[in-house]
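Hi everyone, sorry if this is the wrong subforum. Our group has a chain we'd like a structural model of before ordering constructs, and none of us has done structure prediction before. Sequence below.
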Amino acid sequence: MKLLRCSALFSIAVASTIPLVANATDEQDLFSLSFEDLLDVQVDIASKTSETLSSVPSTMSVFSRKQIQALGVDNAYEVMNFVPGMQSTRGDWVGAVPKDHARGVYLDSGNVLVMINGERVNESSFGKASVYMPYIPIEVIEKIEFIRGPGSALYGSNAFLGVMNIVTSKERNALQLVVGNNGRYGATGQFNTSFSDDTSLFASISYDQKDGESYPQGVKDPLEALYLEAGVDYKKLKLRARYNETSLDEFLNLAGYSTQNQHTSDNTFVGIKYNWVNNDKLKLDSSYSYTKHNISSAGLIAAFDDIPDFLLGPAWQTTDSKFETELSYQIENQWQLAAGIEYAEAKQVEAGVRTSYYDDESMLVIIDPAYYQQGIVTVMDFPEFASLKYTFETYSAYGQLKIPYSDALTLFVGARYDDVKDIDSKFSPRLAAVYVINPEHTVKVQYGESFRTPVTNELFSNDDVTVGNPSLRSESVKTTELVWHYQTSELQANAVLFYNELNDFINIEPTQSTNALFTFANSFNTQNSGIELDGTWQSSKEFSVTGTYTQYFEDPINASFKRFASLVSSYNLSDSWQVSLNLLWRDKVEVSSVTGAHFKQSAYSLVGGSVKWQLNANSQLMLKAENLFGKKYNVFDPRMDNGAVAGTSEDLSLHYQFNF
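Answer:
Right subforum, don't worry. Here is the predicted structure as tokens:
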């Protein structure tokens, strides 16, 4: 660990002495595109029409592959920390699983929709994508797009306070190897080929493993993750498949630290899309996708002096099926229509329990030495979880018009209707006006409504930690945004004022039940607002600096950061060397937990970055660092006895990439 940390500092110092070398390739040059080209990068998740960052009718952040590499991060969720209005930290269950902070809301229920190549990862039992898919390696990623704010007008439930769309690489032939501190090693391979003008194939495989660092509670936070993806394009037909498996044992599970804690999850996705029509005016596609999510987990609930520890957790499986047809039509008057219809079925197929105490006769968890199972056992037909086997059926339709009112003013009018059988229905409108004052200044006014359907864990859970509430309603948010966008050949900047009206918000609350600690309730209606600032200055082809700052005007919902910021600088020392440094700053958090304990974490900063060396036209070496100086800090989680979850210490790794 000390050797890698010294190597990181030494490499930065040595790199600054390297003379300019003319050996540029696309892989090595972060600024191979001009600054204007980077600003004109095409994004379509926010409108279903091709837009740039200045014309898109949403507040967006976009990270290219090269920008992500420069950050020095390893997991897609960590990129959130460089997005205004968003943060990602660890929580109480499972402790190493990322938890989202979005626009003043810090909850564990899936208020940010995560997609991979436009396909949702969030599922119907816990709502959060990261519970079932906590690790998405950045080596397989080509681009990440963030919608900051409502997205339900296009994507339905969970697109509540934001959307993260991860676009994976499909045209890369490369091998990447990694070693790092805390026993880390891994490899990624990517391959693509074209058999003819009509047929092409791509595949990716990534494996990552680490032993984890040691914590005062006597545990580590190990990781083992496998990611597989493949696709075939044949004429108008696209076939896609993806598999992900992640193990996060030991560290923290259900608010308990124990070397016996276990957590494994996996996802299997298959999808098919057919393009019926594709011409200058009309594009028409139909698709079907199927996803299976599995989770097998058990965490320390109670430790005893005279009998073995009590561990408990879910053995659940959910599936998602979706049929969708969408079109894009260019109307004669230059108006553009994007529309679609969708049927989705989300089903909890299995709802078993993993426990160290169980009575086969009564089929109950009974904490008594007579019922100790000599370890953790899995009971798939667990009567108390029977109500979790629930099916959500959703019928949806959406449409949006892009109206070029004049050369300076473009209007967007859209809405989506979702009917969730036996729960409720939601109408999610979206209006936006984009006004170009001059080539440098653009002003946007945006209004949108979003919702999140309660999940089976909130509706029907029944364990020693939480008990469900079948009377829950969907929570909703109404968002108004005023955006100023500025860009020149060297500088781009954005200022966003947002106001959220939150209704029927679902939160955990202490319960009087003798069988559980918490329940769920549509506990309040409230408002929150804030300002988000970001800017990028490129003084030359060699140097760039990007900064973000977020300030909320009200205290966050469930104690979170009221202010936070980031700073990223990248410098091309030559065509072969690049140094990037970043700084994350988070404001203090001080709160009393539900147990009465007082939590206080002073404001802190985390330093990271990367050093990249292009060995030749086909290979490169990169040294990455997160929390380079090993800052010790905690993040707040309301279900911990003292409110504290330990943050990660230094993470240092050396990466080798060979392109073929």
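For your construct planning: The first strand starts at residue 60 and ends at 64. Residues 2-15 form the longest helix (14 residues).
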